[in-house]
Write a structure and sequence with these properties.
Length: 352
């Protein structure tokens, strides 16, 4: 028995927001003073660092649970399974359902419960719960699904990663340009064929790193101080990721017994193009090698950073042939990796 991804689906929001759309924003420093550079220069520097040209936001009528359901339905259809046979629904997110214009999140009931309701699943033994694990939430959900299957607690799981970060950003913070919305979902099953999950690695760093990402006040001091927005210490996160993610990837690869020459694709959380490029360089340097051309597909240029959704969305787009010059073939070894608030890092070695 091996544990494999038997189906995938994603939802790419319809609202396209380009860097030029930030031309009229009033960007401020954290003390509320005006940022000294014109927006044209700010967005140009932003593009040079992150690689982001545009990002996607959900339409006003959609919530995180809605787009999670859409991705889930596609994954269920792709796997050709009866949703009544699901043992677990694991929904990775960070902020719950935040309605457009609202200042509160809604996680009662849980988003996983809402997806089960939307799928009209009657089976009470299909257990639905949410995963709060920062950007690595979907990867961790897959690791947990594998653990349930290996333990004999499940045969089939639905793992979703979805987020609507556009609802929790401070428009006066330049970092707000990084974030986007999206959803990806996968069916994880026990099947009698070669491949699947070969190894995994997870670590949580809190001693100094716990609050590198946090909820904080707007840079606009006239805003209600009781309303909070996603904030980050970008430089600290960058340095942390470069230090810890390659180590986690290498540890995972070594556990799997796979030689690095066999790795065909590395699917890294789409946080920042320069950061991901530095991570892949450091990872290959551990093995005294350089990354092969095309080893690390990127979707951040058009889709931005949708947190837990980036990795499952990227995977789905590749296997569906929707990313130019990228494909995953039967038997290929894929390395998934992510980093995010917590601070958490994780990785999976997977044979397709």
């Amino acid at each position: 028995m091996n544990v494999k991804i038997t189906g995938s689906g994603s939802y790419i929001p319809t609202e396209v927001v380009t860097n030029k759309d930030f031309a009229e924003h009033v960007f401020l420093n954290d003390d509320g003073t005006p940022f000294p550079l014109p927006n044209e220069v700010i967005t140009e520097k932003f593009h040079d660092i992150t690689g982001i040209i545009e990002r996607r936001y959900v339409s006003d009528d959609l919530l995180t649970s809605d787009i999670g359901t859409i991705a889930a339905k596609k994954a269920i259809a792709n796997a050709n399974i009866d949703p009544e046979t699901l043992d677990y629904i694991i929904f990775a997110h960070n902020f719950g359902n935040v309605k457009q214009g609202a200042i509160q999140t809604d996680i009662l009931p849980s988003l996983a419960t809402r997806v089960k309701f939307d799928l009209r699943i009657k089976n009470p033994k299909c257990v639905a719960y949410d995963m709060l694990f920062g950007c690595p939430g979907w990867v961790e959900g897959v690791i947990q699904a594998q653990a349930f299957i290996k333990a004999g607690m499940a045969k089939k799981c639905l793992v979703i990663g979805a987020e609507t970060l556009s609802r929790v950003v401070d428009i006066h913070d330049r970092d707000s340009m990084i974030y986007s919305d999206g959803a990806g979902a996968t069916i994880i099953e026990a099947i009698d064929e070669e491949g699947g999950i070969l190894a995994h690695e997870t670590a949580t760093f809190t001693y100094d790193e716990a609050y590198y990402l946090y909820f904080g006040n707007s840079f606009n001091k006239e805003y209600d101080p009781d309303v909070r927005y996603i904030k980050m210490h970008g430089r600290k996160i960058y340095e942390f990721a470069l230090s810890q993610v390659p180590k986690a990837m290498a540890s995972c690869l070594d556990k799997s017994g796979i030689n690095i020459s066999e790795v065909k694709k590395v699917l890294i959380h789409q946080a920042n193009e320069k950061m991901d490029e530095a991570i892949i360089q450091r990872f290959y340097k551990i093995y005294k090698q350089t990354p092969p051309e095309g080893i690390m597909p990127m979707s951040i240029h058009e889709l931005g950073n949708s947190s837990v959704a980036t990795v499952p969305t990227l995977y789905d787009l590749i296997v569906k042939g929707k990313i130019e010059n990228q494909k995953i073939a039967k038997g290929d070894v894929v390395l998934f990796a992510s980093v995010g608030s917590g601070m958490n890092v994780n990785a999976i070695v997977y044979r397709y």
